[in-house]
Design a protein that fits this description.
This protein is of the alpha+beta class and about 170 residues long. It has 5 helices and 7 strands. Strands 1, 2, 3, 4, 5, 6 and 7 form a 7-stranded mixed beta sheet that branches. The radius of gyration is 15 Å and the shape is globular.
């Protein structure tokens, strides 16, 4: 049976470059090469649901939002509220794999660039990159859902445009 998990695509409009004005960047994290699952992979903040996450909420969708926010804070130091998360997709690891996850993907659109603090244990590096640049730089070290999510994200020039695109995807 697949274990519940959640992840957040943190999309920041807080860094405007002259080369790409208005472009947003997503937060990518590199997992330690010492981990059993996805060693060295570049991922979005997230992870498996803890027992406390499911105790906090009777509805699974609320619990998964709590999981996403808790994992983001643990892995990056970025505190987000469940109300800031927009549902995007759901990915389930295919049967037959030694570790299976039923992962909800959310997007948090922020208009600032927060300070990121990785623990150096589970997460060893981070980068703020435009989705297309993240694919060019780290595609080989990504899990299929991460690669597919980055490939699908639009060229949105404003938080409103990105929010509108996400809303249209989940209808």
């Amino acid at each position: 049976m697949a274990r519940d998990a959640a992840t957040i695509v943190v999309a920041s409009f807080g860094s405007v470059s002259q080369e790409h004005p208005g472009a947003y960047e997503v937060l990518m994290l590199q997992r330690s090469s010492d981990l059993v699952f996805a060693p060295g992979a570049w991922v979005f903040p997230g992870g498996a649901a803890a027992h406390d996450d499911t105790l906090m909420a009777s509805e699974n969708r609320v619990a998964m939002r709590q999981t996403a926010c808790r994992e983001c804070a643990e892995e990056t130091g970025i505190e987000l509220g469940t109300h800031e998360l927009l549902p995007l997709s759901r990915w389930i690891t295919p049967p037959g794999r030694p570790r299976r996850f039923d992962t909800r993907f959310y997007v948090a659109i922020i208009e600032y660039r927060p300070v990121v603090e990785v623990d150096g244990d589970e997460i060893v590096d981070f980068a703020w990159l435009r989705p297309d640049r993240a694919l060019v730089q780290y595609s080989e070290a990504m899990l299929p859902p991460t690669r597919a999510t980055l490939s699908a994200l639009p060229d949105a020039g404003t938080p409103h445009e990105l929010r509108h695109w996400i809303t249209e995807q989940v209808r």
